[in-house]
Structures are given as C-alpha cells and as structure tokens.
C-alpha cells in the first residue's frame, strides 16, 4: 500500500519524505489557501521535495478553462498529477489530459457510479472521500470496498484507488485490509500510525532496567 501525504506544508512534506514513508502528495485548494502562498510556487517546491505523484487541483469549473489550467499545472514538473473534480466537465478534462499522457486524479468521489465513470475517463487515480461520507452518517469504507470490487472485474481499468478524507489510523487499516492502492493521509495520522502506549511503556521499563546494570553499549 502506498501512502500519500495530504498537505501543502513544505516543511512537513520534506520531514516526512526523509522517512521514506511518503510515496506522493495530495493538495487541494483549501490546503493551498492555508499556506498563504502562490500555488504554482508551492506545487513546484513540493514536486522537487518528493519523487512520487503530486496532485495539484484545477480551480475552474468549465471544461475549456480546466483543460488550460491542467496543462499549466502539468508543465510545472514531471511528477504533477492534475486533480479535477468529479463533474461532467471534470471527466471530459480528465479524458483530454489522459490522452496527452498526463496523470489525472479525479477528486470528490462519493459513489461507486462516479468511480466507474472516472475509470472510463482514463483517470490515473480516483479519490473517494471516506471521512466526509462518515460525517453524514454513511459508510465511507463500504464505498472503497464497492469501488475495488468494480475495478477488479475489468482488466482495462488501470485507475488506482486513492482513499481520501482519512481521519485516523482506523481508516488506514480498514483501507489496507480491503487492498486499496493508496491512502492519502494527513501528517498527524502518519505519526499516529507509529504510536502505541504499550510501546512507550515497554521502552521506559527496558531503559529503567538497563540503567540499573550500569552497562553501556557504546563508550
Ligand atoms: C484528498 O485529496 C483531499 O485533499 C482530502 O483528503 C480531503 O480531506 P478532508 O475531508 O479532511 O478535507
């Protein structure tokens, strides 16, 4: 399973990239707005900081302008994946960009039918938002199961399932059990995945006992 980090915070991305846990980055207009910086500069910097795909989202809603924005974003770096919303104009834009060999991440997916259409439009990634479905009392992880089942039926679908709107380690584990290709995860969730109170307690006890021996491995 690949991990993408869901942030536009360059310092955080650089720190996480060094750990080797990060296979790519996703941004969206809200995450870019948080930086208070020029979007094109931020995307360029993120693309230089990681080797994997970096999703950068168009902000127009009509096909013609989306396509122009898509080409502009794609020329920033080889590892840009253009993100388009799951609308009719977005899927037409996806098809045109995919025809030019540009990777497209179709975002704001909330139903299996939408995911099917995105695969038919040649999306490299489909982003179903599990947390936002859970928020309205629906089962976000059931959507992931449904999409994986549909995509598995057809060899011609090369679209990777990128689980988005992840709120905690439980979402990541459930997505991994289902065999989702990728989870895009806020930095705090990546840190939380590493932690367990029994690890901290066990380590403290080992160190206390070691201290009593008066020994040192080094020096
Ligand atoms: C995905 O690409 C989106 O940027 C993101 O996962 C949205 O998550 P949110 O619902 O926490 O805003």
From TrEMBL:
Principal location class: cytoplasm
Residues annotated as catalytic: 83 (schiff-base intermediate with substrate)
UniProtKB keywords: Cytoplasm, Pentose shunt, Schiff base, Transferase
Compartments (UniProt record): Cytoplasm
Pathway as given in its UniProt record: Carbohydrate degradation; pentose phosphate pathway; D-glyceraldehyde 3-phosphate and beta-D-fructose 6-phosphate from D-ribose 5-phosphate and D-xylulose 5-phosphate (non-oxidative stage): step 2/3
Catalytic activity: D-sedoheptulose 7-phosphate + D-glyceraldehyde 3-phosphate = D-erythrose 4-phosphate + beta-D-fructose 6-phosphate
EC nos: 2.2.1.2
InterPro entries recorded: Aldolase_TIM, TAL/FSA, Transaldolase_3B, Transaldolase_3B/F6P_aldolase, Transaldolase_AS, TSA/FSA_arc/bac
UniProt keyword DNA-binding present: no
Keyword Endoplasmic reticulum: no
Protein family membership: Belongs to the transaldolase family. Type 3B subfamily.
PANTHER family linked to this entry: FRUCTOSE-6-PHOSPHATE ALDOLASE 1-RELATED, TRANSALDOLASE
Protein name, per record: Probable transaldolase
Protein source organism: Marinibaculum pumilum
Encoding gene, per UniProt annotation: fsa
């Amino acid at each position: 399973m690949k991990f993408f980090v869901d942030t536009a915070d360059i310092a955080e991305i650089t720190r996480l990239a060094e750990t080797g846990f990060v296979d790519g980055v996703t941004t969206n207009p809200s995450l870019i707005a948080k930086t208070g910086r020029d979007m094109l500069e931020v995307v360029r910097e993120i693309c230089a900081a990681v080797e994997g795909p970096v999703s950068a989202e168009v902000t127009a809603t009509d096909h013609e302008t989306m396509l122009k924005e898509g080409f502009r974003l794609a020329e920033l770096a080889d590892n840009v994946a253009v993100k388009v919303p799951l609308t009719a104009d977005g899927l037409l834009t996806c098809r045109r960009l995919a025809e030019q060999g540009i990777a497209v991440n179709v975002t704001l997916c909330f139903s299996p039918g939408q995911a099917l259409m995105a695969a038919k439009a040649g999306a490299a990634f489909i982003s179903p938002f599990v947390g936002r479905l859970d928020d309205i009392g629906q089962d976000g992880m059931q959507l992931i199961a449904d999409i994986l089942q549909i995509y598995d039926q057809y060899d011609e679908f090369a679209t990777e399932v990128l689980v988005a709107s992840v709120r905690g380690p439980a979402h990541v584990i459930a997505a991994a059990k289902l065999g989702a290709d990728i989870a895009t995860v806020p930095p705090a969730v990546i840190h939380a995945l590493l932690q367990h109170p029994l690890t901290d307690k066990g380590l403290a006890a080992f160190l206390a006992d070691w201290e009593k021996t008066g020994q040192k491995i080094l020096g």
